[in-house]
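note to self — DONT lose this again. spent like an hour looking for the file last time. sequence + predicted structure for the chain T wanted, 429 res
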Amino acid sequence: MAEMIIGLNLVLLGNMGAGKSASGNTILGRQAFESKKSSRSVTQDVAVESETVCGRRVTVYDTPGFCHTELSVLEIQQMLERFLQRCESGLCVFLLVIKADRFTKEERETVEKIEKLLGEKRLEKTWILFTRGDELEEENLTINEFINLSEPLKRLVQKYEQRYHVFNNKKKEPSDQVQGLLTKILNLEYPSSRRIVLLGKSGVGKSAAGNTILGQKEFRSEQRMSSVTRESSVAQATVSGRSVSVVDTPGFFETQMKPEDLMAEIARSVYICSPGPHTFLIVFAVNMWFTEQEQQIPQIIEMMFGQELLKYSIILFTHGDQLEGKAVEELIQGNCRLRDLVQQCGGRFHVFNNKAQNNREQVNDLLQKIDSMIEQNGGGHYSHQRIENAQRFRREEEEQRQREEEERRQREEEERTREEKQKESCVCS
């Protein structure tokens, strides 16, 4: 499959004088932003410039030095929300620019301020960009040696899971430092490998679909109402030159497992394809009736994984050979519940004929749809943290429901007690 040309948005954040504008110029390979030493931030609003860099369209957002600006906290927040809405429509990465110099108290406070403005979710896409690499070279220091000189800096790098890079913005000639940064980012944020989780009820062809994707028989597959798969399992193969992992899960409504064990096993699918799946394939057979059970599946998925999972989902129809020339769109349009589910998944669906495993075009087309979905989501994957957040939210909702139920019972008991006392009072009088 041909490589996709991925647009990349880079947001430069940091203290005044850290070298944000100069770094933007280095990335774009031209004098795009005004860069000079000053007692106040040269950049008072977000400046945006684009260029084709290393064969990719790169857009750089240069932001004010947030600790040396005349903007109020509210104005900064409004500015962030205004431009983040635009740049997060594609693959967006935040570059926290820090001088390769003393990591002062002021700089630490700036980092904390930026982290608070971005929020926890965006920190997963944040990298540290060290500037003044030329000074490190003069002092004969490697970046690792420099980081280890400062305990707060070492902790910061660990917090960002070693996502960092070094720039020497004084280099005028083309160098590999920009290519190195883009390669690091794209390899981590948009990896060539794909991790896929199969979800659906028993007998719809999940395991067979997994075998079709991998191009080899990895999962036991039989057409029966009771699930052959009793525990989530993962298999991997090289598909169209890329590493693909598929997780097969027990079928929803599996009667030979306790409901709590079944749900826990399906939820475990997220953890066994660490650090998390790129997509969930919600599997239905084209020849089935969309019964009450099928209608429950979206609610079960939302309860287990959270509403956000549908952003990472594609509806996969199996038994495509039984369409007999009909378009699957007719099937979707003919059932309002199914149509609603497809719409919740961003209109994404695909059809497999599992009897034609040698037809690799159907697999390549699916991988292309997965790539497009990831790009629309701004890159990344569904993480362990998201399912933990969803499960915590569900527990809190249940605890709230129990508290309200207990309060209701107490009120009813108090009301009965009052009524009984009133009756006794009436009898006595």
